[in-house]
Write a structure and sequence with these properties.
Strand content: 15-25%
Helix content: 25-40%
Number of domains: 3
Oligomer: single chain
Structural class: alpha+beta
Order of helices and strands: HHHEHEEEHEEHEEEEEHEHEEEHEEEEH
CATH superfamily of the largest domain: 2-enoyl-CoA Hydratase, Chain A, domain 1
Distance between the termini: 117 Å
Number of strands: 19
């Protein structure tokens, strides 16, 4: 009986073990199924969230990288600047220029964007910037520089047909006085401002030339900065050098083209080497004289809004064309070269351009100051984004090493220009 009972207990135990194994197997299958289901739910949720976020970014309503919103805690900013102000007033040793501190505060706010092209301008800086891009100002038509060590102010160049050239100022002349006042303690910007804004149009500059003291009398007037240089080379090859794309450049360019055409130009080289760019509308107006009807360039802002600039069918350039570029050809220069390259109406010669494919806009603030902000990317007609990449030349040629540090290079020395000429002759 005892043995029979033991056998029954073993049989019951075996049945219970079998049931346990079956239960564990069922639990494992249920767990596996639940796990798979959970993974699928998570994956679907992740995919839904990703699509939602992309849609938000494209609509410009997300707080992501593309449409990051600045949301300063103004109460914290006010409290902290108040603490700093109190400490400066209590302990700072030297004189305090409150306006300079305030301007630097705004400058630092924009600098926090870590974008070298976004800038805060004081009212004076804004006026100077506008004057520079217009290409016109009231002055004498001379470029001046100041030695950082000696503070000596000297003439760098005089524009053709300006008061400076007519009065006989020469490169290298050292300016020692202005209307009888010494300039030894002046900053360059201060002297330039006095020359441009003095109520009397007549002024006298004291200069030193080859050890001799001289006085030069000038009459200030409206001056247009020459941004276009041109000449006819051999074999009826026109050569136009574009220094910048200012507001006056389009008209100067048109006059240069007209003159070269009247001289029987058969081929053309446009040189935008070392051209830092300028006004977007100016380069578009100039390209309209070259391109067939179609897209010149387009921009896209942070919300994906696209703005197109187009050419009409009225003007086209059909003669052999080469465009010279280098690593300092930037912004509007790259728009020019990129459009010529995309349409295939000219050959790009030189080295890869700078790679500035972003657009800035000036915003005017209520107190007369201003803000320049990067607000869009531009794309070539074929949709190329060249920012931080540049435009690759069709024919790559480096400037000879012994010429790279020279301030001026003759046509006879310029191997890049020679290559452009040979391309046109071929």
């Amino acid at each position: 009986m005892e043995q029979e009972q033991n056998e029954n207990e073993k049989q019951i135990q075996n049945q219970e073990d079998g049931q346990n194994h079956e239960s564990e197997s069922e639990n494992f299958i249920k767990g596996l199924f639940c796990g798979i289901l959970l993974v699928l739910i998570c994956a679907a949720g992740t995919l839904f969230y990703a699509r939602w976020k992309i849609a938000k970014i494209q609509s410009g309503t997300t707080a992501g990288v593309t449409s990051e919103k600045l949301d300063l805690d103004l109460s914290q900013v006010k409290r902290k600047t108040g603490e700093i102000e109190a400490l400066i007033n209590a302990y700072y040793l030297d004189e305090i220029d409150a306006q300079q501190i305030e301007d630097t505060l705004y400058t630092g706010m924009v600098a926090g964007l870590d974008d070298p092209y976004s800038v805060y301008y004081t009212q004076e800086q804004l006026e100077s910037m506008e004057e520079a891009t217009s290409g016109e100002y009231s002055g004498i038509g001379a470029t001046l520089s100041q030695d950082p060590d000696t503070k000596e102010i000297s003439v760098v160049s005089c524009f053709e047909g300006t008061p400076a050239e007519e009065a006989g100022l020469l490169p290298g002349d050292v300016i020692t006085g202005w209307n009888g006042n010494p300039v030894s303690d002046m900053e360059l910007s201060e002297l330039v401002s006095k020359i441009k804004t003095d109520p009397d149009e007549h002024l006298t500059l004291s200069i030193e030339r080859d050890g001799e003291e001289l006085e030069v009398k000038l009459t200030r007037r409206a001056v247009e900065v020459p941004t276009v240089e041109y000449e006819m080379l051999e074999d009826q090859i026109g050569y136009i050098r574009l220094l910048e794309f200012d507001e006056v450049t389009a008209q100067q360019f048109e006059e240069a083209m007209s003159d070269l055409e009247s001289q029987g130009m058969e081929k053309l080289i446009i040189d935008v080497r070392n051209n830092p760019g300028g006004v977007l509308q100016t380069v578009c107006d100039m390209l309209d004289q070259f391109l067939p009807e179609g897209l010149i360039v387009y921009t896209e802002d942070k919300n994906g809004k696209r703005t197109e600039y187009t050419s009409d069918e009225e003007h086209q350039f059909t003669k052999p064309l080469a465009v010279l570029v280098n690593g300092n050809s930037a912004s509007a220069s790259e728009i020019f070269a990129g459009a010529i390259q995309d349409y295939g109406i000219g050959t790009i010669v030189g080295t890869t351009t700078f790679g500035k494919g972003i657009v800035q806009k000036i915003f005017y603030l209520s107190d007369g100051t201003g803000l320049k902000l990067t607000m869009a990317k531009y794309y070539t007609p074929k949709g190329h984004d060249i920012h931080k990449k540049g435009i690759q030349p069709d024919v790559e040629v480096e400037l000879d090493e012994d010429l790279q540090n020279q301030s001026s290079i003759s046509h006879e020395e310029d191997n890049q220009l020679k290559k452009a000429i040979s391309v046109l002759q071929e």
